[in-house]
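sorry to bug you again but im stuck and you know this stuff better than me. what follows is a protein written twice so to speak, once as letters and once as structure tokens for the fold. id like you to explain what the token line says about the fold, in plain words if possible. anything you notice is useful, everything is just below.
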Amino acid sequence: MKLNQAVSKRLTQMLDEKGMTQYQLHIKSGVPKSTIGNVINCSYDSVKLRVIHEMCQGLGTGLDVFFDSPLFDENNLEP
């Protein structure tokens, strides 16, 4: 799996866990709706850490929780 796919899946998981929509995340985080949609749809080859951090703030969580997932295990990611 590519890193952008792992970020997409993790963001989708966290939105589901929090019962939030992309629009609600946009309101709480200040990240543009289009950017959130592009991250989820893997439209970007890479996602800036700053954007992930802002989305985590909107989710009420930290980067440590976001990246604490088997999705980011080196064995699961393509080089």
User: Anything to note?
Assistant: Helices lie at 3-18, 22-29, 33-40, 49-59, 63-67. Residues 3-18 form the longest helix (16 residues).
